[in-house]
């Protein structure tokens, strides 16, 4: 699939309250009473809770938040692109694309043919915020087409949910302000499964003071 050039993507946390009703969860001890210290390598949020050290993977955390939002938002909120995104495909890719379009439309995409082996995207789900990087759309389509022919009995909707969440989530190397980190943690606390991303990776790792003391040989 051919790609066009891209602009630098700006980071934006979508307010969860605008997407769905907040879900109150009790098993979120790791995210309570956190004092954010900062970012490490623009990948992890570093915080402390009492005497514990807490590390949060910003991409995995945001991916979990978006995944749960996407699961519940079919055709609920969409945004029109100021500049439509064109996608050029090979004839083989076009056949696959035709199979995926109905599923993508269910999640808020507006996709139509635009000449031979070319499609134009005019609407996208609201979870992308102010979409300033058209490469995100190309990456989503590439990920889906790379998985081959649609098999209706193998969870195609879930695959699309995971792909959308992954591509819309904060990337490694994205600088976050204190407010953005706080908002991310608040949204993660409301997730049904806040401790892992949709692919099973952990979102948070906690080191107790005792563990840190043993690492530094302060105690045996």
Secondary structure tally, helices = 7
Structural class: alpha+beta
Share in β-strands: 15-25%
**Poorly predicted runs:** 2-11, 14-26
- Total number of beta strands: 7
Shape: elongated
Order of helices and strands: HEEEHEHEEHHHEH
Q: Taking Cα atoms only, what radius of gyration do you get, to the nearest Å? A: 20 Å
What is the residue-mean pLDDT, rounded to a whole number?
84
Q: What is the percent of helical residues?
A: 25-40%
Cα distance spanning the termini: 57 Å
Largest sheet: 4 strands, antiparallel
Q: Biggest sheet: strands side by side, in what order?
A: 1-2-3-7
Give structural notes:
With 220 residues, the protein is an alpha+beta fold. Helices cover 36% and strands 20% of the residues. It has a 4-stranded antiparallel beta sheet. A 3-stranded antiparallel beta sheet has the order 4-6-5, with helices on one face. The longest helix is centred in the middle third of the chain and has 16 residues, at 91-106.
């Amino acid at each position: 699939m051919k790609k066009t050039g891209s602009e630098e993507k700006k980071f934006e946390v979508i307010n969860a309250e605008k997407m769905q009703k907040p879900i109150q969860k009790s098993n979120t001890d790791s995210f309570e009473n956190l004092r954010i210290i900062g970012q490490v390598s623009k990948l992890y949020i570093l915080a402390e809770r009492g005497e514990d050290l807490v590390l949060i993977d910003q991409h995995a955390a945001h991916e979990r938040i978006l995944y749960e939002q996407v699961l519940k938002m079919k055709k609920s909120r969409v945004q029109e692109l100021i500049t439509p995104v064109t996608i050029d495909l090979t004839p083989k890719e076009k056949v696959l694309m035709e199979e995926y379009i109905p599923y993508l439309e269910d999640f808020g995409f507006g996709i139509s043919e635009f000449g031979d082996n070319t499609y134009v995207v005019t609407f996208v789900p609201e979870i992308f915020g102010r979409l300033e990087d058209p490469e995100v759309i190309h990456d989503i389509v590439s990920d889906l087409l790379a998985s081959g022919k649609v098999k209706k009995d193998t969870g195609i909707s879930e695959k699309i949910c995971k792909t959308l969440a992954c591509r819309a989530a904060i990337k490694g190397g994205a600088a976050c302000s204190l407010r953005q980190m706080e908002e991310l943690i608040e949204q993660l606390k409301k997730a049904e499964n806040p401790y892992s991303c949709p692919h099973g990776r952990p979102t948070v790792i906690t080191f107790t003071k005792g563990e840190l003391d043993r690492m530094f040989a302060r105690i045996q």
